[in-house]
Amino acid sequence: MNPSRCIFHIDMDAFFASVEIVKNPNLKGKPVIVGGRPDKRGVVSTCSYEARAFGVHSAMATSEAYRLCPHGVFLEGDYALYRRASDKIFDILYQYTPFVEVVSIDEAYLDMTTAIPEGLSAKQVAAQIREHVFRETRLPCSIGIAANKLVSKIAAAKAKPNNLFEVEKGTEIDFLAPQPIQTLPGIGNKTQAILNNEGFILIADLQAISLEELVHEHGSWGYHYYHACRGVDNRPVAWEDTLPKSIGAETTFEKDIEDLADLALELEQLVEKAHKRLRIHKMRTKRLSLKLRFSTFKTVSRSSTLEMHINDLKTIQQEAFKMLSYHYDGLLPLRLIGISFEQLTNSYWQPTLF
Questions:
Q1: Inside any domain, residue 54
Q2: Same domain, yes or no, for 64 and 145?
């Protein structure tokens, strides 16, 4: 692949349903449908591949999903649970490159152009990422590899479920040609029907038409079709638009802890983990928030605002330890501890001459 651009598209497989299956392994192999109970108005958020075999899909009314798959396992969904899983996944992705464009809770682009280690191929690194995500979360994902965002997204869909697919630079037209036109972003059901009526069934049919003809018939969309069907996409991975508003880490203990020294050790590791992400983004923090959950499940959060933005690990650790010793009295053991960095900035304040 041309080293000038290398884009990964990460797409978690049936994300909400997969998280529910990790939470409850008894659901494995069953048609899991997340979105609400079928006797109430609701929409399917996602479903397992077992449910998809019966025609169930995202954005379908749960009542219709029940008609197609009455033996399915219908779940209300737990967005907080999904968000925690998503945070773990993105923590892993940021270990491979700082250039991550977050598309949604379960989808991202990675600009790997300068992040492929010497001696490894893009596909080998993608395999490492996929295995790393599964090892840490038990969640499957599919990865598309290409020279731009558009083709990498289509490649990720081709890789599903739980696999990799690479489109080498220069092969985009041949890769896209045999696929149906609705494969291209921007062609929904209504547009597909219009284009089908005009004789465009496969992407190859669009590739056979000149730019002038497409623009004449479809205006600005014709320009999009012409370039998209050839796999042309110059959009950058917009990682700067997805800089985090806060960065944190937390852990739930297998057994409750009340010893302050043990808690300080756990907090030290969490601060180091969060600090790595802070440095990856070349950001600094001005406020720390400490989260404590007691054995009674009571949860408190306490914050400390610093005099200026910093990213010095030692200073942050000292402030975090100070907060822990001040806010934890040792009367009740803790089952969870967390730290987050807030009021982030990636710019540096410079005093004026006056």
A1: yes
A2: yes
